Amino acid sequence: MKGSEVPHYAGYRVASGITLPALHSIASGQADAALRILFGAGIDTTSAPRWRHVWHDDDGSISLKVATVDPTPEHSTPRYLLRAPGQADFLLDPPAACITVDAEPGLADNTLEHLLLDQAIPRLLAGRGHLVVHASLVHAGQHTVAFLGRSGWGKSTLAALLHSRGLPALCDDCAMLELGDNRVSATPSYPGLRLYADSIAQAPGIAPGVGPVSDYTDKQRIIELALDPALLEPQPLAALYLLDDPENAVATAQIEPISAAAACMALIEHGFRLDPTDPVRTTRQLGQASAAAQAVPAFLLRHPRDFARQEALIALLLAHFDSIGHTQP
């Protein structure tokens, strides 16, 4: 970090009690707000948390759960306890843009970084009223496109393949969308990719990973992406591509338009949420997703999960990027 440069995440300056190597640094005056990550301050979990929602992994195990925290004289606004069982607790204070961390002894540094960057911070930002979605962003010529889909559906691999062909990958699993003047801007969370070794091998020019993303996955974290710093600022969003379920096998790659209603539901399904049981936040997110879906064309992308056919997929995408570029207002 040089001079007055500070780490940032989706336009927020990040002040953290530990180093987060995946974050890039920008001039301190470029970010609008500060996000604080505290360690060692302690989280009072003596009373039984009132769990409001539980997220499960594909195998049925609990990956995350969230509870409300009782108000105190010092904290009259809502706070939330986000727990990754057996790994760490995160006390999220959305109005203050603050996360307090209580990690289990011996938790690997890379696992803590992953939980913070890819789970806790996105949900804190959602709690602050932002529309935050599971999406990879790629800068395609004069505009930026987003790929939406569940973990394991190939967002990062697509971004890596395009990046290796000169279309910069801006982020691989989290983007913040904002509506203004009937257009949508997309802000990358942080640059980098998380890829398995076979995907890295298929993307010439992608540097080897700096190490596993966490201690429970073989995915490698790729942070050596040469990007113009201007691309980390909000970018006009030209199109949304919803990835189809890999179980729906197809012989050739296909792109077809989807309705604004279907795009809205996709944004909701693939959005980060702090408390899915909160009707006020749910209504707000639905309104944001509906407005974004009305403003940005959306498409369903089906393609064979076969590296041998990736050139045809890339050619189809490049042609489609060019066509949407000519139709943007």
Give a short overview:
This protein has 329 residues and is α+β, with helices and mostly antiparallel strands.
Please identify the structural class as seen in this structure. Answer: alpha+beta
Radius of gyration: 19 Å
Helix content: 10-25%
Beta-strand percentage? 25-35%
Distance between the termini: 39 Å
* Main sheet characteristics: 9 strands, mixed
Cα shape: globular
In spatial order, strands of the major sheet run 3-1-2-4-9-8-7-6-5
**Individual helix count:** 6
- The number of distinct β-strands equals 20
**Which regions contain 5 or more consecutive residues with pLDDT less than 50?**
none
Q: What's the order of the H and E elements?
A: EEEEEEEEEHEEEHEEEEHEEEHHEH
Overall pLDDT: 89
General description of the model:
By secondary structure, the chain is of the alpha+beta class. The protein has helices spanning 109-127, 155-163, 197-201, 260-269, 279-295, 310-327, and strands at residues 5-9, 12-16, 25-27, 33-39, 50-56, 62-69, 79-84, 88-93, 98-103, 131-133, 135-140, 143-148, 169-171, 175-180, 183-188, 193-195, 220-222, 235-243, 254-257, 298-302. It has a nine-stranded mixed beta sheet with strand order 3-1-2-4-9-8-7-6-5, covered by helices on one side. The N and C termini lie far apart (39 Å).
Q: What's the structural blueprint in terms of helices and strands?
A:
Layout: E1 5-9, E2 12-16, E3 25-27, E4 33-39, E5 50-56, E6 62-69, E7 79-84, E8 88-93, E9 98-103, H1 109-127, E10 131-133, E11 135-140, E12 143-148, H2 155-163, E13 169-171, E14 175-180, E15 183-188, E16 193-195, H3 197-201, E17 220-222, E18 235-243, E19 254-257, H4 260-269, H5 279-295, E20 298-302, H6 310-327
Parallel strand pairs: 2-4, 4-9, 12-18, 18-20
Antiparallel strand pairs: 1-2, 1-3, 5-6, 6-7, 7-8, 8-9, 10-14, 11-12, 11-13, 14-15, 15-18, 16-17, 19-20
Helix pairs in contact: 4-5
